[in-house]
UniProtKB/TrEMBL annotation:
InterPro entries: LysR-type_TF (IPR050389), LysR_HTH_N (IPR000847), LysR_subst-bd (IPR005119), WH-like_DNA-bd_sf (IPR036388), WH_DNA-bd_sf (IPR036390). Belongs to the LysR transcriptional regulatory family. Residues 9-66 form the HTH lysR-type domain. It comes from Streptomyces cirratus. This is LysR family transcriptional regulator. Pfam families: HTH_1, LysR_substrate. Keywords: DNA-binding, Transcription, Transcription regulation. It comes from the Bacteria.
Amino acid sequence: MRDGPERQLDLNLLVALDALLEEESVTGAAARLHVSAPAMSRTLGRIRTVLGDPVLVRAGRQLVPTPRAVELRPGVRALVHQARALLVPEPVTDPARLTREFTVQATEMVLHGLAPRLVRAVVRQAPGVTLRFMPEALEGTPALREGRLDLEIGVIGHPDPETRVEPLGRTRLLAAVRAGHPLARRKTVTARAFAAADHVGVSRQGRIRGPVDEELAGLGLRRRVVAVVPGWNAALFLCRESDLVCLTPAGAPSHHLELLGLHTFEVPLELPPVALGMAWHPRNDADPAHGWLRDQVRQSWRTDSFSG
């Protein structure tokens, strides 16, 4: 048998019952909930109908709870507190007490510059947090929407419509060659000399042509791409062992290039800057822990580290 309308669940009745049992006064409960006394009196009538108990009865000029009301008081109080805890935004997370694993996708071009500072911040502030950096293979997939990624950092290509994207900065690209490369001995590298050298491309999709080739074509020039590799590190190591030219983000850690014995120079082309940012799914907008992580990314990011 279905409950009638008067027995359907109404959480507002719990809040009103909690106020009535604490105040033991229709007027006091009305003032506490910012409603009129007649409205609270009607609510008390509904509560009496639902419970099948008068709840509050008059004793002289006062109202006193019935035995059933006294029995209900602690349970009602606890339920109202739990409901408010669920609906009221959580306080700012204390990182020192946070236990969480965040899955982050970061492109190689920013991982070397950003990860050391971000990891140091996590170690210092939140010993219970683990950062799990994932390969760029998830880029272009619904990983953020599906919850497989918490945050994406780098070149944000074609995000889902609901994805939140926050710009972090821009970087330009430099050319890198081994120290003994013929171009390393030039004070100025022309577009013609740049195009005449053999190149290694970087593309996760294996693409041979890109913005560099479009700019060269506009000058009536063409380069030879000997190899295409999926990541920046592989390209830099390949340049160290050959006479190939590769591109590297300006501001890549100088000690990394020095250890590899690489020389960098300005690309003699008008290449557009590379926009970098972070992206997340809106389900995490109000999550204090995720908000803390985004703050750490912002604070760890230094524009000059990626602009050269």
